Amino acid sequence: MRFGKKKVPLSDPKRMHAMKRTILLLAALLAAAGAAAQEAGRIFRTEAVPYDLRRDAERGDRAKSGHTIDFSPGMVSASDRSFVVGQRVDIPYVWTDGVVGLHLENVRSAYTLRVNDCEVARVEDPSTPAEFDLTECIRQGTNDIRLELRDSGAERINTAPTTREAFSGSYLYYQNKRSIRDFEIALVADTAGRRFGMLDLKIIARNAFNYDESVTVGFDIYSPQGKLLEFNMKEVTIPGRSTDTVRFSPYIYGTYDNVWSADRRNPPLYRVMLFTRRDGAYKEYMPLRIGFGRAELVDGRLMRLGRELQLLTAPCNAAADRATTRRELLALKVAGKNTVCPDCPQPAWFYELCDEVGLYVIDRANINAPDGRTNRAVGGTPSNDPALADEYLERVKAMYYRSRNFTCVIAYALGGPSGNGYNMYKAYEWLKSVEHDRPVIYEDADGEWNSDL
Question: Is 38 in contact with 121 (CB distance < 8 Å)?
Answer without folding.
Answer: no
